[in-house]
Amino acid sequence: MLLLLLILLGVLAAAPRPASAHAATVGSSPAPGSVVGSSPTEVTVTFSEPVAPVSGQIQVIAPDGERINATPVVEGTVLRIPVRKANRPLGTYLVSFRVISADSHPVGGAVTFSVGAPSATPEAASATGSHPSVTLAVPTFKFLGYGGLALITGPALFLAFLWPRRRSRRGPLRLIRIGLALTAVATLGALGTQAQQGSGGALWQVSVAELTTVLSSRFGLLLLARLAALAVLAVLLPRLLSAPARRPSRLGVRALSPAPEAAVAAPQLTPRAAVTAPELTPAGAVAAPQLVAVAAGAPHSAPAGPAGPAGPAGSQRSQIGQPAALATSRTSRTSWSPVLIGAVLAVSVLGLATWPLTGHAIAAPMPAVTVTVGVVHLAAMAVWIGGLVTLLGFLLRGTDRRVLGVLLPAWSRWAVLAVIWLAIAGAVQAVVQLGGLAAVWQTGYGRLLLAKLALLAGVLALAATARRLVTRVAATGASRLRRTVGVEIVATVLILGLSAVLVQVDPGRTAGARDRAVAGKGLSETLSSPLYTVQFNIYPVELGEYNTVHAFLYTPAGAPLAPAEWQLSTRLVSQNLEAVKEPFAALPIEHQALGTVTFPVPGTYEIAFTIRVDELNRATVKTTVTVAPR
C-alpha cells in the first residue's frame, strides 16, 4: 500500500501543472496596451465562457498605485468594472482580475492601458495564481472522490447480485462505509479549497465570509447536494445489503438452500440443479442477467435420486439441501422493496451527476450530452475498479473454487460491459473536450489523455489475461488470478491519479481561445535625459512597416514640453548596420509626436530618439526591442 501511495504521488507531481483557468480573455476595453485620451468610466473584460466574479479580487490600479474601481458586475461573458477618475490620471493603468469560470475553475490575469502617455506599470495588490498547497490539494481531493465512488459501487453490486450466501458481509459493508467517508471528505475538501482558488491564498487561509460565499454559489449548492446523497446512501445501503434478499422465482434466481448441508454443484450436475449465470435464451438473444447467490461452504456430494433432480425425489432433496446442491431459494431474511431500490438508484445517479455539473462537462459545447456521458463514465469506472477491489480483497481468498467457477464468469461479463461503456463515454468526452486532432499532441490535456490511454491499454491486456484465467479457476485455483487482478488494480489507481489531474488542466478545445486571448502587445517605455523625459509606445512590434510610434515629451519636472525638433531612427544591432531614419512628426498637441517604424527582418533593434528642445540643446536617448519571426 505504501508503494502504491508513492507511485500515485509521483504521478501527481510529474503531471503538467494544472492550469488556473479554463476560460480565456478574448477582449477588453480599453484594449490591452492602448493609449487613450481620457480616463474611462468603465473597464470591460470579455471571456470565452461565462464567469462569476471573486469578491475582492478585481482591481483597477491607477498610475499612482491608487485603487479606483467600484463593485464589478458580470453579464454572461463580460466583466464590467466601474471606475472613478484618478487623482493623477495620466499614465499606465493595471486591470487585475480573478473570476470563476463555468466549470468552477479560477481565471486570473491582468491587462494594461494608458491615459495620455505610458508610464511605469503599477503593481497589483495581490497575486493571481494559486498557492502551491491548493494546487496539490485540489487533484488529491479529486482522486479521493473517485476512489470513494469505486469503493461504494463495487462491493454494493457484489453484495446485491454475486455474493456467496455463506460468506460474511461485514467486510464489503465496511468497505462501502469507507467509500462513503472518502467521498464525503473529498467533497468537503473541494468546498474548502474553492475560496482559496479564487483568492490565491494558502490552503489554511480562508475566512468564514469566503466559505459562506462558496456555499451559496452554484458550485457549493451542487456539492451540498452530493453530501446529502451520500447521507441518504449511508442509511439505505446497509439496510439493503446487510442480508441476502428474497428474489422472486420468476426472475430465474438460483440460490443455495439455506440448510447447512448445502453444497456447490459439481460440474456433472444437470443445469436445473446448478447456479446459472447470464445465459442465452432459446431464440439466441441475451437474457436479462440472473441474480446469482452462491454458497461458499465445504462441498458435499451425494447421488441424485432415481428420478433425477427433475423428478420428485430430486425435487424433495433439493429443498432440504441434500444432493441437489443448488436449488431455488424459498425463504430469505430480507425483502427488497421496489421503492427502496428505486430511491437508491435515483439518489446514486443524482449524486454522480454533481461531478460533471461542476467540471469541464458543463462548460463544454452540448452540455446535456457531456454531462450524461460524464455520469456514464463515472459509473462504469466505479463498477469496474470497485469490482476488482472486492474480488481481490474478499472473494479470491477463502472461497471454494467451484463457487468461483460460477461467480467469476458472471462478473467477467459485467466487467466487459463496464469497460465498453467506459470506452464509449470516454471517447465522446475526448472528442468534445479536445476540439481537434492536433490538440492531442499540442496541448497538455491531449498529452495527459495519451498517457491515460496507454495505461488503459495495459490494463485491458491484463483484464484479457484475467478473463482467460477465469475459466480455469475451478481446476487450478485462484492464486494466479489474484496476482493478475492485483496488478490490474495498481494500474487503474494510476489511471485515477491521471484523471484527477486531467480534470484540472485546460481542455484542448480552449487552446484556440487562448491563442486568441488578448495580450498587451507592443512596447511601452520611459526614457530620460537631463533635458527631458520621453514616454512612448510602439505597437504592435511585428515584422513589416506597420508599427506605430506615439511619443509624449515632458520636462524633468513632469510638465508637458513642446520641442523644436523630433527625430527617430532604428538600427539592427545584430548585423551592425547603420541607423535608418524613420518618419516622425509633431502633433497639434505640441508635446506629442506620431510616426511609424519598419522592422524588415527578425532581430534586436536599437530605437533612438533625438530631440532638440530649443535652438542650442538637444539629447538622444536609446533603447532596444526584439522583433520575433512570424
Topology (elements, then pairings):
Layout (H helix, E strand, L loop, with lengths): L1 H13 L10 E5 L5 E2 L5 E6 L3 E3 L5 E3 L11 E3 L2 E5 L8 E11 L4 E10 L16 H31 L7 H30 L8 H8 L2 H24 L3 E2 L7 E3 L35 E2 L18 H9 L5 E2 L6 E2 L2 H20 L2 H4 L3 H29 L5 H34 L4 H4 L1 H27 L2 H4 L2 H24 L8 H5 L7 E6 L4 E7 L4 E11 L10 E8 L7 E3 L1 E3 L5 E8 L3 E10 L5 E10 L3
Parallel strand pairs: 2-9, 10-14, 11-12
Antiparallel strand pairs: 1-3, 3-7, 4-8, 5-8, 6-7, 8-9, 11-13, 15-16, 16-17, 17-21, 18-19, 18-22, 20-21, 22-23
Summarize the structure.
This protein is α+β, with helices and mostly antiparallel strands.
Question: How would you explain this protein's 3D organization?
Answer:
The chain has 630 residues and is an alpha+beta fold. The chain is 42% helix and 20% strand. It has helices spanning 2-14, 132-162, 170-199, 208-215, 218-241, 312-320, 338-357, 360-363, 367-395, 401-434, 439-442, 444-470, 473-476, 479-502, 511-515; strands at 25-29, 35-36, 42-47, 51-53, 59-61, 73-75, 78-82, 91-101, 106-115, 245-246, 254-256, 292-293, 326-327, 334-335, 523-528, 533-539, 544-554, 565-572, 580-582, 584-586, 592-599, 603-612, 618-627. Strands 2, 4, 5, 8 and 9 form a 5-stranded mixed β-sheet that branches. α3 packs across α4 (208-215). The protein is elongated, with a radius of gyration of 35 Å. Mean pLDDT is 74; it is low at 1-21 and 247-333.
